[in-house]
Prior knowledge:
The longest helix has 38 residues. It contains 42 helices and 37 strands. Strands 16, 17, 18, 21, 22, 23, 24, 25, 26, 27 and 28 form an 11-stranded mixed beta sheet that branches. The chain has a 9-stranded mixed beta sheet with strand order 14-35-34-33-15-29-32-31-30, sandwiched between helices. It has a 6-stranded antiparallel beta sheet with strand order 3-2-4-13-5-11. By secondary structure, the protein is α+β, with helices and mostly antiparallel strands.
Amino acid sequence: xxxxxxxxxxxxxxxxxxxxxxxxxxxxxxxxxxxxxxxxxxxxxxxxxxxxxxxxxxxxxxxxxxxxxxxxxxxxxxxxxxxxxxxxxxxxxxxxxxxxxxxxxxxxxxxxxxxxxxxxxxxxxxxxxxxxxxxxxxxxxxxxxxxxxxxxxxxxxxxxxxxxxxxxxxxxxxxxxxxxxxxxxxxxxxxxxxxxxxxxxxxxxxxxxxxxxxxxxxxxxxxxxxxxxxxxxxxxxxxxxxxxxxxxxxxxxxxxxxxxxxxxxxxxxxxxxxxxxxxxxxxxxxxxxxxxxxxxxxxxxxxxxxxxxxxxxxxxxxxxxxxxxxxxxxxxxxxxxxxxxxxxxxxxxxxxxxxxxxxxxxxxxxxxxxxxxxxxxxxxxxxxxxxxxxxxxxxxxxxxxxxxxxxxxxxxxxxxxxxxxxxxxxxxxxxxxxxxxxxxxxxxxxxxxxxxxxxxxxxxxxxxxxxxxxxxxxxxxxxxxxxxxxxxxxxxxxxxxxxxxxxxxxxxxxxxxxxxxxxxxxxxxxxxxxxxxxxxxxxxxxxxxxxxxxxxxxxxxxxxxxxxxxxxxxxxxxxxxxxxxxxxxxxxxxxxxxxxxxxxxxxxxxxxxxxxxxxxxxxxxxxxxxxxxxxxxxxxxxxxxxxxxxxxxxxxxxxxxxxxxxxxxxxxxxxxxxxxxxxxxxxxxxxxxxxxxxxxxxxxxxxxxxxxxxxxxxxxxxxxxxxxxxxxxxxxxxxxxxxxxxxxxxxxxxxxxxxxxxxxxxxxxxxxxxxxxxxxxxxxxxxxxxxxxxxxxxxxxxxxxxxxxxxxxxxxxxxxxxxxxxxxxxxxxxxxxxxxxxxxxxxxxxxxxxxxxxxxxxxxxxxxxxxxxxxxxxxxxxxxxxxxxxxxxxxxxxxxxxxxxxxxxxxxxxxxxxxxxxxxxxxxxxxxxxxxxxxxxxxxxxxxxxxxxxxxxxxxxxxxxxxxxxxxxxxxxxxxxxxxxxxxxxxxxxxxxxxxxxxxxxxxxxxxxxxxxxxxxxxxxxxxxxxxxxxxxxxxxxxxxxxxxxxxxxxxxxxxxxxxxxxxxxxxxxxxxxxxxxxxxxxxxxxxxxxxxxxxxxxxxxxxxxxxxxxxxxxxxxxxxxxxxxxxxxxxxxxxxxxxxxxxxxxx
Length: 1148
C-alpha cells in the first residue's frame, strides 16, 4: 500500500527492473501470475505549473525573494503588535506585487501549456481491435502499433515492424535530433517485415524485450521474440531497428512500428535538461543590495532602540507628565519591551527595502519584452515569422553575454548544398547554365545542343554520379514502381535522398550537366549520359568511416570491365594516387578551400580479372570473419584503395544563412567569444567554420581529435598549451570531437579550460546533445562565471539551450522543439546581432538604472524618518502620513521610472549596431558594480540630509517664513506642527527624486514628459484633495488643511526651490565635468544621437509633432536640439512600406 502511494506521488519510478517487456498490440499473457509493468504516457511536458500546484508553487518561488519574504514578516509583525503604521502600508503593496507577478508568470506558463497541447494533441493512427484508429499523440501507450506516413515525424520511440517495401526497410532523417541531414536506413526483422497490412499485424504474436530508457541516441539493445505456428523465433534488435521520436520518415510511403519508449521516457525527452528557474545577474545583484539595505535597516532600528532607552534614562523623559504609564506598562518585562520597541522601529523604517522594486521590474520586463516582437528588423518576411519571447525574466541578460554557443546545421547554414566548381585532369571548371565550362571561358554552345565532353570529363562525371549511396524517391500514388521505368531521368516527381548533403548536391549537379543517375535496383545502377542509358553492376561498397575519410564502390561496366571509383578528403585520397594531374589538382583543392568550399577528391582504379578475384576473395573473408572483423576490413580496404588514377576534385558550398559572417564578426568585436557545437563530421564542421568567419584563414587551427585514452588526451592538451604560449601573438582556433571531449572533461577539466580560454574560437564536432549541455555548464561554473548564450534549431540543441543562462531557438526546418524550450526565438541567426547589441544593451542600462534609482529614492524616503526620531525622543512618531507612506512607491514616484525603463536609449540603435565595441562598456555587470551602488546610496543619504535639515533650517526656526507672509500668529504650533514639517520634507523629496530621474534621461518622448511632470502635478492635486475633505472612513484626519496651509506661503515655495536646486546642482556639475574630462565610449557615441546621417537604407529621427504626417514621405531631415522631444520613427528599407503604430515606433 505504501509503495503504491509513493508511486502515485511520483517518488518511485514506474519501472524497477533493468529491462522492459513490451507485448506487441498489448496482447498480454493469460496466465494469472503476470503483473503488467507501468510505463509513462506519451505526453511531452515543458510547462512548470499545473492548475493544482500553481498557487503553492508560485507563492513558494516568490517568497524565496528576500524583499517579498521580508515584507511578509513585517506585515505579520504589524498584525501582532502595536506599531506606528497600519498593516495596510505593508500588506497592500505586498499583495499587489505578488498578484501582478503571479499573473505574469501564469500567462507565460499558459503559453507553454498551449505549445505542449499542440504537440500532444497531434493526430496519429494506431492499430486497435483489428482496425486503424485515429487518436491523439498523448494517447499512445507502450505496446501500441503506430502507423507513420511519409514526411511525418515519429510520435514515440518505435521498433520498426514493417514498411511498404517488401524487404522491410525505411529511410529517415534525424536532423532535429543530432543535426545530421543525411538519410539513414532502418530495418525490420524478416519475421515482421511481411506484416504490411492491419489484419496481419493484428494476428502478429510477438514480444519485445529491451533495456530501460536511456539518453544515448545511438545505443539500443533488445530482442524480439516472434511466435509462428507454435515456434518462437528470436531476433536481436539494435539502433538500426529503432525509430526515434522527433525523426522524420523519408522516401517511404508508410511504416508500422511498436511503441517501446513514450513521452518523457523517449530518448529525445531524456536529452532535455531538467527545467530550472533561470535568474539573471541583475536579479542576483538586487538580492545582494537588498541584504546590504537590510543590514542598514537593522542598524538603524537597533540604534534607535538603544538611543530611546538611553534618552529615557532620565525620569523626565521616561514618564513625562503628559504621558503617564499604566501599572501594566511599569510591571512589564524590559526584554519584551525592548523587543517590541525594536520591532516597532523595524516597521517604521521598513520602507528602506523597496517592495515595489520587484513589481516594477516585473512590469518592465513583461512590457519591454513586447518590443522584441514588434521590432520589424527581427521579422523574417519569407517565412512570415517574428521574434518571439517565451520568458521575459532574462531581458537584461541579453546585454551581458560573454560566450555564445551555436549549433551549425540549420543555425549557421541553410541546410542546403550547392555545387560551385570542380577540377578535372588539372583544369578548373565552373557550372554555367547547367554546363561544364573551363575557367576563364564563357558558354558558347547554342541552347539545346548536346555538349561534347572529352574522355576525362565524361569519366569524372560518371564517377561522381556512381560513387555514392544516393537513393531516389518517386512521388506516386500507385506504389513504388520500377525506378528504371523513368527512363528519361528528368521526371519532375524524382527526388534524391543521400547519406550526406554533399552527395546529393553532386548527383544533382551531374544530372544538370547531362549525366543522370536514374536509380539502383538490387545489384544494378543505371545512369543516362545525354540520353544514352548505361547499366552498371554494383559489386561492392567500401563504406565511409572517420579514419579512412573516403568511400568507394566497385562496379562492373556494361563492357564487363571491373572498376573502382573512390572519393574522399584530399588528405585521404591524394597520397594513394599514382597517376593524373596530382599537383595541379592539389593547388585547385587549396583554392577551393580558401573560398570556403567543401572539397572532395575523385579517383578510380581499373582491375584485371585476376586482381578482382583477389579483391573479392579478401573482402569476403574479412566480412565473414568473427574475430577482429573491423581491423581486417580496414586492412583490405587499404589494399584495394591504392595505385589510384586521379580524376579530379569537386567544390561544394554549404550555403550559409544571410549575414552569418557579419554577425559573428560583430559579436567578436563586442567581446563575445563564439563556440560552435555540432553533431556533424569533423571536416564538414571545420569547412563551415572557415566559410562563416568563425575560423579565420590566418588563425592557427589546433586539434584535439581521435584521442583514445586519458594519458594521450592529457599529453595532447599539454602540447597545445605549450604551443599557445610559444605563439601567443597569433590567434588560435581549437577543434575538439565528442570522444576526445569526454576524455578531457573526465580528469583534465582545468587544462582543457586553460586551452579553450586562450583560443579565439572553439569548434566542437561529433557532439551528443548532453555533451553540448556539459560544455555550456563547464563554462558557466568556471571561476569567472561568464554569462552564456546557446542558440540552436533542433531537438538536439534543447539541453544546451536550457543549460545556458540565455537560450535562443531558431525557427528553422527541424521542428519546433528548440523554439518551445527556449527563452527567445528568432527566425535567422543574423538577428542575434541586433538582439544582443541593441535590445540587450537597452534592457540592461534601463534595468540597471531602475534598480539603483529605486534604492536611491527609498533612502531619500526613510532617512528623514530616522533623523526625525532624534527630535521626538525616539517615540516612534512617523514623519509622514500613512497615506503618503503607502502611495510614495505605488503612485507618486512609480510611473516616471517605469516609463524610463521602457524607452530609455543612451545611444541611437543604428550607432549601437555600427559600433559593436560599445557592448563592452556594459559587460560584466558594470552598471551594477559595488562602486556604482555605493555612489547611488551615498547620494540618497546626502539628499535626505538636505531635505530634512534644509526644511528644518528654512522653516523650523525663522518665524518670518510662517503663514501668508505674516510674522507670527497665536496658532503657530497649529500652522507649523510635525505634519506640516513632514509634508514639506515629503514635497521636496517627491520633486527632487523625480527631477533626478529626468537628469538621467537621455531619450525624451511625449510619454516621459507626461509621467515626469504629471507625477509631480498628481502629487499636488492629490494632496490638496486629500487634505481638503474630512473623510468619514478614516479614524484620524491629521492632514486636514495642512497642505493648503503650507502652499499658501510664498516662503514655502521659495524653500522648496532652494532645497531642490541645492540637491541637484552638484549632480549637474559632476555630469558635465566627467563628460568633458573622462568620457566613456558610450558618451562619445552619443553625439550621433542628435544627428544621424541618412544612408541609403536608413531614415533618421524626427520630432514627434511631424512624425505622423511625414512618416511616409520623408526625404530630408534637419538636425535639431537635444532638448526637443524625440521619438523613433520606422527604420525602413528601400522598397518597404513605412511602419506604423507600436511596431514602427520601435523598429529602430
